[in-house]
Design brief:
Layout: H1 2-11, E1 15-19, H2 25-39, E2 45-48, H3 50-54, H4 59-69, E3 77-82, H5 86-100, E4 104-107, E5 125-131, H6 151-166, E6 169-173, H7 178-187, E7 193-195, H8 205-212, E8 220-224, H9 226-230, H10 234-247
Parallel strand pairs: 1-2, 1-8, 3-4, 4-5, 5-6, 6-7, 7-8
Helix pairs in contact: 2-10, 7-8
């Protein structure tokens, strides 16, 4: 968490650069290097998506090389949406942290805190899926609980309790529903949100920032993947995104 706080302050950025590589192996290796080199000055964090690497024969090696290329002062969040428990979850955590070298992960909490705790380490971040950016017709996240609120709200409350107990717990909250971002910020006033859905998925950046920023102008990591991957100049695009984000922040460093 201190690494993330330091980086967002030193770079004056809340931009999370998503790495969802598409193309043939040679093209992907070249483009990953370009995107990292061009955007790292503007990145508060990088988020490689595990599935886009595992679908390749050399995927794990490419993922390790990608993480090694990222400057050490920038947090790396491995987006694996891990969701198992006990020994299996422990091995996923070892893979993410000890093999890949990530600073944080995303976790699916469907099995409760048993799915989250194996990923908790003193120097790591765990982002728990609460309200994701997809618009499913039959979303379990929106199901009402008998005690009030939705399942997503219940997840947020559990994540908040875990953060108070063990620290290092944030939420994944999609930008495609600014109202939900605001509701979850009310439930979790101090936690960091990893926010996908701005850009290709149509999330409203200004509304998301207004709903989700903490009073200190931080607490959100705005993730963008495809826009940067497809940009002719990823660095210029990243700089523009940071400027757009900072324009709506009540406080900047």
């Amino acid at each position: 968490m201190q690494k993330l706080i330091h980086r967002t302050g030193s770079a004056n950025s809340l931009l999370c650069v998503g790495l969802d590589p598409v193309g043939d192996d040679a093209q992907v290796a070249r483009r990953l290097a370009e995107v990292i080199d061009q955007t790292h000055a503007y990145a508060a964090a990088f988020k490689p998506n595990l599935a886009f690497f595992l679908s390749r024969e050399n995927g794990v090696q490419l993922l390790k090389e990608t993480v090694q290329r990222i400057p050490k002062d920038i947090p790396v969040i491995l987006d694996g949406k891990f969701g198992d428990i006990a020994n299996t979850a422990d091995h996923y955590a070892r893979f993410a942290y000890d093999v890949v070298g990530a600073d944080g992960v995303t976790v699916n909490p469907y099995m409760g805190d048993d799915a989250v705790r194996p990923f908790v380490r003193e120097d790591k971040l765990v982002f728990v899926l609460a309200k994701t950016s997809n618009k499913s017709q039959y979303s379990m996240q929106d199901m009402a609980l008998t005690r009030g609120g939705s399942l997503a709200d219940g997840v947020a409350k559990v994540a908040s309790r875990l953060d108070s107990e063990i620290g290092g717990i944030g939420l994944v909250v999609g930008a495609t529903n600014a109202e939900a971002v605001g509701r979850l910020r009310t439930l979790c006033p101090g936690q960091w949100f990893l926010v996908p859905g701005v850009g290709a998925q149509g999330g409203d950046l200004q509304a998301t920032l207004k709903a989700g920023l903490r009073p200190d102008g931080s607490g959100l990591l705005i993730n963008t993947s495809r826009v940067l991957w497809q940009a002719a100049d990823a660095g210029a695009t990243a700089r523009e995104l940071v400027e757009q984000i900072n324009r709506f922040r009540p406080v900047t460093a």
